[in-house]
Amino acid sequence: MVIDILYRRILQLFSVMLVVGVLSFLIMHSLPGDMAYRIAAGRYGQDNVSMLAAQQVAIELNLDAGLVESLMYWFNDLIRFNFGTSLVSGQNVSDMLYHQVGHSLVLAISAVLIALLISIPFGLLSVKYPRILNPFISLISVLTKSMPVFVIGIVLIAIFAIELNLAPVAGYGSWQYLLLPAFTLGISLAAVTNRVIYVNALDVSQSAFYQFSRFKGLTVKQTLLRHGVKNISAPVVTYLGIQLVIVIEGIVMIESLFSWPGIGHGLAHAIFARDVPVIQGCALMMGFLFVAVNTITDLICYKLDPRGLE
């Protein structure tokens, strides 16, 4: 079964990367405006760019080549795992992606860990105290999830960076720079995750097998560890897998807000500068992460409950 999962995901990986790569190539080449002028503006600045500089950039980068010819060049480089060089900075795109993906993964994993630290106790406490805590936690979850994630980030910046001076506003350096972006994503993710844990924990606690284990004489802790954790975890892992994909897609806004040097921040700059190789590299890497996260989620769910994928 594991081999079947990996086989399907590898086929999906090639399909996703092919479709994402071709679509991003066609979209970027069909955008209105002078690509050479935008690239020259990215290199020399808006105040120093001229038509002569744009013409020199067009000749240097062979931008006057036809669409099919450019697409064939791109395919030829992709087969050799060569993402090319940035049209603006001249840096190797593979090196840029290597650093950006590392920073994005650190941010995403930190956000998921924070979300679990918040949502697990909140979800279980809602089951244990359904009349006292559940309505309050449910209201907080709805209010938090109804806010755009960048609003949560601005609120955290105002409180913890400006008023209390406990964390830097933005940038990258020591671990303190990770706090606000990770908590912004983590809080947004925990708003719904704690509700998923609550619903599944309530279903499991009211199930016949769970009640029977209590009749056998097991304590609450023993029953939870032996029969509760595994049955609650499978749907929660599935939900987190879906949410992590959304985090990867939505990380552009958070990385731009906090100037975090991840793949989303790099993609936003590349789009403004019309840096096609960097845009295509970022899009392909996001497609790869999408398939990788789904594969890991399927394998964990299969390990927790093999019946779910049979």
Automatic annotation (TrEMBL):
CDD domains in alphabetical order: TM_PBP2
Boundaries of every ABC transmembrane type-1 domain copy: 101-301
UniProt GO cellular component terms: plasma membrane
Membrane topology, record value: Multi-pass membrane protein
One Gene Ontology MF term: dipeptide transmembrane transporter activity
Transmembrane feature ranges: 12-31, 105-127, 139-162, 174-192, 236-258, 278-302
Keyword list, A-Z: Cell membrane, Membrane, Transmembrane, Transmembrane helix, Transport
Subcellular location, record wording: Cell membrane
Database matches in Pfam families: BPD_transp_1
InterPro entries in UniProt: MetI-like, MetI-like_sf
Primary location recorded for the protein, binned into one broad class: membrane
Keyword Transport carried by entry: yes
Keyword Membrane: yes
Family label: Belongs to the binding-protein-dependent transport system permease family. OppBC subfamily.
Name under which the protein is recorded: ABC transporter permease
Source species of the chain: Shewanella maritima
